[in-house]
Amino acid sequence: MKYHFKPLLVAGLLATTGFAAMAQGAPHNEMSGQPHGGHHRVDPAKMQAHMVRRQSELKAQLKLSPQQEPAWTAYTAAMTPPAGMMGKRPDHAELQKLPTPERLDKMQALRAQRMGEMNAAMSKRTEATKAFYAALSPEQQKIFDDRAMQRPGHNRGHGPRHGERAES
Predict the structure, then answer these.
(1) Which residue from 85, 21, 87, 80 is spatially nearest to 52, judged by alpha carbons?
(2) Of the given ranges (10-19, 34-43, 99-108, 147-156), which has the lowest mean pLDDT?
């Protein structure tokens, strides 16, 4: 009996220690401070500030001429999410009053409406990006292309890439 108990005890302690270490070192989302993968609401003020900062950095890199300013203004206006788009939530009290089949139908209709709005906003952004891109010089287009392929927060001089070792 003692022989079987001791390995289980050690395994349990190791597992508990491992879970505690993982919980303490969980990565956080840049926009909300929440762990990745969790359901959380993005702070609209943080998101807006992040977007403005990235747009300012891009504008500085592109070195736009005065003739390109109207195209830039139209582009940045189209890239700004519509007010309240992130905050639309179904009325949970209203949904709770419905029987399950009706509640599911209502949720599906709300999801379809939201997807339609998102697709329309994406089309607007696509057209604005194409129009702005056409106003850029070939050198500026190269900068824009390079910048567009960067994933925010991923490997911008913040250590080695995934799978690489840091130089010692």
Answers:
(1) 80
(2) 10-19
Neighbours of 132 (CB within 10 A): 23
Dihedral, CA atoms, 83, 108, 106, 125, nearest 10 degrees?
20
Tell which residue, 71, 70, 75, has the closest CA to residue 55.
75
CA distances from 113 to 49, 79, 117, 152 (A): 28, 20, 6, 28
Token reading at 91 = 């009325």
pLDDT in tens, 110-164: 889 889 888 988 999 999 999 999 999 999 999 999 888 776 555 444 444 445 4
Residue 94's pLDDT is 87
Number of domains the chain is built from: 1
Rounded CA gap, 18 and 12, in Å?
10
156 within a domain of the structure (yes/no) = no
Q: Give the domain extent around 129.
A: 91-147
Looking at the domain assignment, is residue 139 inside a domain? yes
Which residues is 35 bridged to in the sheet?
28
pTM above 0.70, yes or no: no
Say if 69 falls within a structural domain: no
